[in-house]
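Why do we care about 3D structure at all? Because function follows from shape, and shape follows, mostly, from sequence. That is the central idea of this module. The next example makes it concrete: a single protein chain, its amino acid sequence, and then its structure expressed as tokens.
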Amino acid sequence: MSRFYIPRRYMFVAGTFLISLFMYIDRACISTAKDPIAGDLGLSDNQMGWVLSAFALGYALFQVPGGLMADRFGPRRILAAIIMLWSLFTALTGAAKAYFQILLVRFFFGAGEAGAFPGISRAIYSWIPMRERGIVQGINFSGTRLGAAFAMPLVAWLIHQYGWRISFLYLGMAGILFAILWFVFFRDKPEDHPALSEQEKDHIIANRQEQDGPRTPLSGSALFGSGNMWLAMLQYFGSNFTFFFCLSWLFPHLKKTFELDLVEAGLYASGPLIAGALGNWFSGLLVDNIYKRGHWKASRKVPAIVGFTLMIAGLLGSLAMNNAPGAVAMLSLAIFGADMTLSPSWSFCIDIGKENAGAVSGTMNMAGNIGSFVTALAFPYLMSWTGTETTFFYVAAVLGGISILSWLRMDPEKSLIKA
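And the structure:
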């Protein structure tokens, strides 16, 4: 093997990182375009709440089917189809002429994205050794945050230059090109990749979870009869409830509250997302470091519990701030903490799901994105009902406390498939 050989599993991780990056650029751009879309289509804040939540509903409902397809047909074909589909509906967003049309397009955009992370999880099960699982999850989810952070000022600039409709078309075309590249260069298993050295192939096979024999189907009773699964779903609901605020209402909230212009609001709104990327890296390293010391359970529980604690502190601290830099700093702490929960959460799903990691992670992500669906509506409606935005932050903090209690009872060593 050449001394300059780059492990091909690193290239695989670079590919999944880019999938995450593109996914969240396309997902976050709707928030940046909120004002011009609402102006062109004559939509109120509550109607825009439904537009934002339509994505989350479609995304949540198709998580499990997407995961099941990745488990059955392999992540190469399924992820290529998913990227192609969501990119098509990104482009079609710019063609919407009325409220009902944009609701429908955003619902199918969410449905199109739904199987992406379950598919990535299924690929990680085959490609990544156990002791590298945490940092790989951290890298992937840092891509989502960097993509969203990049999208805020980028899309603001694109809209300023070309208008919101053309901006969505350009973003969709870029995604379609990437889908083709993924299908050409990726393989479902390292054993099937012609560019892998025998040494790396042997290393992966020797250090990943056991994959002997045919895949054991996961029944609905095993999936939804597991306390582990319900606790994973509950805590992920709490995490997404806070994070989706960044993708839906943070930009317009900062713009309106602190009287910022379009690009300035985009730059401020990118701050918590960059903090989220750092939280993913930190948590991923922490997960792997604790695991390598022989503490499997603690490697999942400790980063998640610390993360939810920081999330609560940041949410409540943001209420004491009366200027944009202070509010963004506290919300950055909250999102850093919320994103610390992602690597242990997705690693946990692969732990208990094994060869059914796509279905298990899809089920957890379904619950999390029901949280996203609720968030997009909760922010404007709670403000309308209570007369203040602070109610939303208190609700998010309470959900964080419930999530901590969930993690105290979760056990990554309890597989959903009995030997």
